[in-house]
């Protein structure tokens, strides 16, 4: 059981792509699940849309078929990284029930569904890493559904830790600070003045680079001592 596998959602850009690069350097085979493909060589891509609650029923066989060439014994050491997320601008005053459900499906329910697909083939030494946010344990205005879903993701991680006790599979939730990604830039309308203001709230005076997060995700996935941990990686935020 020497093959090491990374299964990641949203591995085509930003933090996800940086994580793929890092795991590849460490000899992992990579399966990326996202609507757009990762452009890195030797990555196996599955174009799946997890926004539909029934996606898992249709996708389970596709995922196992994609992994089977790497798992001659039927199981493998798998690092499962739940990275895909949806970030909307919304408020507790105006968010609709459907919009709330749509964000929760992508950010919380889909990771649970993917866990259930992969756990039967995850050998001892595997890991489940949830990518949360600074907003997993605090809040800002205008991001109601994202804040709520990222808080829920911490709960899902803690439940994972307890429910898998004795299985030799560890889990944790990484909470990145403000990272220089397409998603953040789109959220602020590509306004550099806003990005500069965000960076001024970090003790290092800059945004995190995706490659920094990629290295940290690898570390979290390969250290069982971090089981059940909420791991903040934000360069130190200035509290005001």
TrEMBL record:
Keyword Oxidoreductase: yes
Similarity comment text for this entry: Belongs to the short-chain dehydrogenases/reductases (SDR) family.
GO molecular function, one term: oxidoreductase activity
Keywords: Oxidoreductase
Name of the protein this chain belongs to: Protein fixR
